[in-house]
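User: CoA pyrophosphatase. Structure?
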Amino acid sequence: MMEALLRALRPLSQPPTAPGWNHDVMTELIGHTECRPAAVLIGLRDERVVFTLRTDHLSSHAGQVAFPGGSVDASDANALTTALRESEEEIGLDRSLVTPLGYLDCFETISGFCITPVVAQIATEATFHPAPDEVAEVFEVPLTFLLEPENLKRYVMDYRGHRREMVEFQYGGHRIWGATAAIVHNLLQKMEHP
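Assistant: Predicted structure:
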């Protein structure tokens, strides 16, 4: 499984650039908007994917499942730096216990971000300490669960008069949907068809 994962990734020496792989769809939905750069960490610990549940009081995406991550700061050298910094801030992840593996292609969101997903191995002994003002919970989902076709749910959503095909996963009472599910689905597709 790890071999398929590694084959699916862009090497660390070749980070992706905007626009996102879904740029045409986003342009149709929100027009030609300048996207703000962001990065997320798709962390794998013992072949389990690490997710966060955002707190209910946040101004955006409250109560949603997400990857640790956020906007690129001016002081960040690159998307990898952003993903590691945000993971430290949000879930207390010690970056010395993270081994970056590669990137997925950029993904654009309805909220106007262009996200660079960074895929990394997290050491078994790593511990998580969620920032209580941002993260309600950290949980892990086996990669094998996400790879099972019957665990992928498809539906159509109406957004500003446009029909959007969406995907989601349900695991342990958590609904993984939106940008997070789309990024997971992109990874799974690349693992099956590199």
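The domain at 2-144 is CATH 3.90.79.10 (Nucleoside Triphosphate Pyrophosphohydrolase). Residues 20 and 43 are 21 Å apart (CA to CA).
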